[in-house]
Recover the amino acids of this structure.
């Protein structure tokens, strides 16, 4: 969906800022040169007047006019410099915002590709592998695990992992500890400070519940990131939330499909036995 209004285009706005800045700088240079000329002329007149008594001649009037003009130029110079400073600050803010928008656009593009991959298959094992690859490449996690809800025991059981053994990750009861509480509430968990953090299965860096509406089907627990961060930013929070929704849908669909395939296979086996 395009926009014809060029004023809303970040590139055009940036060029406009640069043009205004250049014109302001050039005008300031001209004012400084004119100011310098007037000062030299004023000094010359003052020296000439200093040789004799002032009698209110035309030189006195011209000196006053020059003084007044110099003051006006000084004020204009200060106003222009102030405006140039404002433009520089606005341009700096615009540059920061442009970088943020680029990061968000890249994140959304990567998430679109990832979601397409997630929903391109109904094979449960393939879906889990794709989730692992997305968490590695998109989030930058080095050690993490995927735990899914066992409805019979009401516990979160580890089914896949990266950077550590799946068997080392303990099962967690719903509502117990950080992981269990996140699964119960459906709210993402982020550790307050990552300084000096060491892997703790009961206290991950991040815990992302996989929710289908109000129903929890599992969590992604992250214990180590590839790039050390001091804190998470707004893009990270959005990315975790969007990823959780797509991953949950893909896992839920693939499990239903796998269950139906097994049931059909069982039914077909009974039919084969009865017809023989």
């Amino acid at each position: 969906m395009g926009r014809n209004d060029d004023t809303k285009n970040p590139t055009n706005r940036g060029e406009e800022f640069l043009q205004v800045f250049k014109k302001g700088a050039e005008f300031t240079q001209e004012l400084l040169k004119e100011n310098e000329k007037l000062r030299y002329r004023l000094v010359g007149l003052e020296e000439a007047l200093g040789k004799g008594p002032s009698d209110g001649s035309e030189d006195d009037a011209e000196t006053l006019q020059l003084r007044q003009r110099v003051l006006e130029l000084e004020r204009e110079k200060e106003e222009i410099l102030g405006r140039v400073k404002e433009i520089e600050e606005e341009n700096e803010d615009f540059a920061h915002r442009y970088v943020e928008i680029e990061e968000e656009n890249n994140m959304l593009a990567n998430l679109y590709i990832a979601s397409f991959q997630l929903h391109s298959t109904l094979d449960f094992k393939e879906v889990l592998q794709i989730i692992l690859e997305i968490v590695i490449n998109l989030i930058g996690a080095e050690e993490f695990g995927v735990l899914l809800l066992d409805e019979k025991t009401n516990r979160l059981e580890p089914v896949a992992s990266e950077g550590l053994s799946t068997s080392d990750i303990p099962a967690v009861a719903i509502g117990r500890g950080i992981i269990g509480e996140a699964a119960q509430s459906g709210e993402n968990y982020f550790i307050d400070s990552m300084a000096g953090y060491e892997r703790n299965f009961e206290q991950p860096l991040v815990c992302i519940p996989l929710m289908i509406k109000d129903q929890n089907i599992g969590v992604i627990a992250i214990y180590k990131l590839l790039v050390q961060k001091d804190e998470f930013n707004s893009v990270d929070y959005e990315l975790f939330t969007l990823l959780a929704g797509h991953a949950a849908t893909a896992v839920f669909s693939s499990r239903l499909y796998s269950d139906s395939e097994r049931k059909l296979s069982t039914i077909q086996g009974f039919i084969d036995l009865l017809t023989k």
The chain has five helices and six strands. The longest helix spans residues 58-118. The mean pLDDT is 78. The first strand starts at residue 141 and ends at 150.
